Amino acid sequence: MRVTVLGSGTSVGVPTVGCECETCRSNDPKDKRLRPSIMVENDGYTIIVDTSSDFRQQALRLGLRRVDAVLITHCHADHVFGLDDIRPFNFRQGPIPFFANEIAWKGLRQVFGYVFDPKTQRGGALPQLVPHTVMGAFCLFGLDITPIEILHGRLQVLAYRFGNFAYATDCNFIPDESCEKLAGLDTLIIDGLRYNTHSTHMSIEQSLEYIERLKPKRAFLTHMNHDILHARTSKELPEGVELAYDGLQFEV
Fold first, then answer.
1. What is the rounded distance in angstroms from the CA atom of residue 36 to the CA atom of residue 50?
2. Which tens digits make up the pLDDT trace of 95-104?
3. What is the dihedral of CA 137, 53, 190, 207, to 10 degrees?
4. Alpha-carbon span 240 to 217, nearest angstrom
């Protein structure tokens, strides 16, 4: 199984519009962060986790030719506003399965009402998706996937475990039961927004505390804002912990 980080930035991306800070002016490509998303490839199939606001740009940069399924963590703009950009894939391959929990589906039907309203289905090119409500573990293209409930402030968000890899973005608290489901990982990607605490995201310190508790063999921080200068912050992290960056790929 191969994992590709499509975007490792926060909701406004890095560089941030109008900002002249050190990170936003950095020439290091690892400081250029699109909105958060990953791609999981296994046995010839491609799964996207979140159609971020930058999905079109991410797909073009990667040369993406096919999407076999999409998993949604939650219905926030930076994670789903690229949904309309699945249409070119629909043109070539037809409807695409989408997986989300009930909370996310409620939001998606509000935000993308034109996709689900039968009155709009008569003309024009609309996204074609096959909705699936995630209620427990499931198998997709031979890959066992476990949804894991984490908290993004008061919002219930889904982390996803694919075998010995898990992706846990946008969270500031992981319940004990969910921590048990995140044990024994080879690789974990986890929220690490900034140095200071935040009401709905983990600080670097909080991320490291969870990593110490979960003890994955390798961990990456994602959803990082412009407080994080890649070269400098990387030197401060303990062994086995790294910063994700756009285009990062690894095998699990």
1. 8
2. 999 999 999 9
3. -140
4. 7
- The single-letter code of the amino acid at 239 is E
Query: pLDDT, tens digit, for every residue of 183-227?
Result: 999 999 999 999 999 999 999 999 999 999 999 999 999 999 999
**pTM more than 0.90:** yes
- Measure the CA–CA gap between 33 and 5, rounded to whole angstroms: 10
Structure tokens at 21: 């800070």
Instruction: Identify the structural domains of the chain with CATH numbers, from first to last.
Output: 2-118+125-251 (3.60.15.10)
Pairing of strands 218-222, 138-140: unpaired
pLDDT digits (tens, 9 = 90+) for 49-102: 999 999 999 999 999 999 999 999 999 999 999 999 999 999 999 999 999 999
